[in-house]
Amino acid sequence: MARPKLLPDNFTLCLVGTVILASLLPVHGQTAVAFNWLTNIAVGLLFFLHGAKLSREAIIAGATHWRLHLVVLLSTFALFPLLGLALKPLLSPLVTPALYAGILFLCTLPSTVQSSIAFTSIAKGNVPAAVCSASASSLLGIFITPALVSVVITNQAAGGTSAWHTVWSIVLQLLVPFVAGQLLRPVIGRWIERNRGVLKFVDQGSILLVVYAAFSEAVNEGLWHNIPLTALAGLFVVCGVLLAIALALTMFVSKRLGFSRADQITIIFCGSKKSLAAGVPMAKVIFASHAVGAVVLPLMLFHQIQLMVCAALAQRWGARDINPEKRAAGKEAAPAAVARR
């Protein structure tokens, strides 16, 4: 039986199920403490495996395209935060202050890695450059995101610690395991390549654990009593507006700067997306535990919207590149058929 096109992917359904489970059966007391330790271990393992998986050759192959990478990084770490701040007077009335803090946090996050590369490939973009750009964004985000959060978010949601303390916490929990994975790549790299399902399981499993623990804490603090349905509807509008502006601006700027079509595709997909895999663990470190649930809710919604919109764009642009090739092949075959007659 064919899967309905409008049905979200399995991971999104699991995220929704996790939020519902945490809302109905939140963890308390010592169980919550145990879940916190479990999520820390899972997140560390996740970044360790990502470090072991990342190919240095692929990064070096795309690293020379510095103009493209600069545009992507400026879009990710400058354009988005500026949009979040500039649009606040217009969009913040649609949501609660806690949710808009989550929107601002979303704006500071690095780009995705896996889906950016996948969509770039489908749309016939510059894949090596996408690998390099998305990976650089993810690594730099470990340092840039906490600093940006300390600038753009000034309320009590951000846990009250200094940016440098937050950076150090993220370095210990995320970067150290990543570097360890890179160092051990010659030993376990081939095993990782043969067992990609393990990385996918740890990737998605760690996010679900963090989401469950975060929403449990938030529910215990009265999350759903403080977020009306109108604010959730407004959140959908805010996420859609942010993504639409980011897509339009990256498309316009990449054309104006004279990039090739393949490079334009890479800039659009890498420069308009935000990472759920990096954002959820970072939120756990940066924000007070009771605020994490409301902070990651905008990210979860934006993640699903960006996947649906970018998947449609990638398929459309990929088909546009294939069709001219088919027409050209048909034109070449036509004279041969006439000659045979």
TrEMBL record:
The keyword Membrane applies. Keywords: Membrane, Transmembrane, Transmembrane helix. One of its GO terms (cellular component) is plasma membrane. InterPro entries: Na+/solute_symporter_sf, Put_Na-Bile_cotransptr. Gene3D superfamilies: 1.20.1530.20. Pfam families: SBF_like. The keyword Methyltransferase does not apply. The chain crosses the membrane at residues 39-56, 68-87, 99-119, 131-153, 165-185, 197-215, 227-253. This is Bile acid:sodium symporter.
